[in-house]
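for the record, two folds in this file. i put them one after another cuz i was lazy. first one right below, seq on top, structure tokens after. the second one comes after a little note so u can tell where it starts
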Amino acid sequence: MSNRLNTTPNDLRAFWMPFTANRQFKQEPRLFVGAKDMHYTTHDGRQVLDATAGLWCVNAGHCRPKITEAIREQAGELDYAPAFQLGHPKAFELANRLVDIAPEGMNHVLYTNSGSESVETALKVALAYHRVKGNGSRFRLIGRERGYHGVNFGGISVGGIVSNRKMFGTLLTGVDHLPHTHCRARTPSPRVSRSMAAILPRSWNALSRCTTPRPSPPSSSSPLPVRPACSSRRRAICRSCARSAPSTASC
């Protein structure tokens, strides 16, 4: 066993940990020093099941021999090649393999370093696409309440977790949010019923601001994709919205 497994840092102040109560953590640190397959090893030798695959990025397991050998071999041959005006054969090879298994119409690959960066890039691609197509007025971005789209400015703008953006003032403009679809039918209450009754008109208002021509208001003939347990409540909501939906005249 490596000596590193028995080593505890004597000063934890320099590392500012994200999404962590830093003072509490550093009073009672929880440190991983190794991993193999489905388990982490703590600094005191305990095995901990990695139920979340790292941060959803170690789906093949930890320290798989084929993967570690491929990393070692590539680092010994070429550890980094820039992608600005230059390239590396394996980057093109991987892009081709991804396109081969992607759905029809997805013919290009743009590499990013994280989920947050992927969201930022996707937002920019969408806005730029419509601008170069002559549809510069199509700039609205629609997110959903309770949705998570990373922690960069674009991601927290379209994301629906208020606590992730409350400290940062004005973010992206032209962003709307649809209500979440979390169904609490197993714990019904008047407050929950009122909340669900607001979903359709709020969704319609958000979508109508970014489509031309504006969509028709929701009605009982436009069912929602919700669980069967919510079907009776859904019909009541649809009937209510059909009576109270706002006018379809242009703003």
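(here's the note) second protein begins now
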Amino acid sequence: MENEQKLSTQILEKKDFTPVKAVFGSASGYEEGEVEDFLEEVGQKAIQLEEELQSVKIELNKALNDRKIDAYVETAECSEELSTLREKLEFQLAQNESMDRTLKIMYRKASETHDEMVALAKKEADSILSDAESESQELMKKAQNRHDEIMKEVRKLEEQEKNMRSEMASIIKKAQNAFG
């Protein structure tokens, strides 16, 4: 990851990809490498945030379930420490909720990007297939026309051969009658 940035909804909403023109047709999309790198970074951050969130939840559950906290609450000496601890826990909970929202936004963005890429790829594939079918039909039509021309020429040559044989036979017959 080139620039390690703090993951936030602002980064996700402002993330831009380099637009690219499709090779076939006029469709456009995003530079695949950039999208894949970004999705990988988002995935790694999501895993990291999920692990941190899980760890904090475990710590929080341990702290809340630990009966020693109740004993500290009863003593005046520990009330300030408990207050600080509660503030830290509340702050951590707020951060966890923020991370949870960020993860949901990241997942939604990744899903939307995936759907867009799949749709673009399908559209491009359909276009390529359509172009190939059109070109195939055009080639078949040209081949058939050429075949028809050749067959017409063959029939014409066969007719000329027949006429020449007939003329030759007539000439030979006249020559035989004249000399014979």
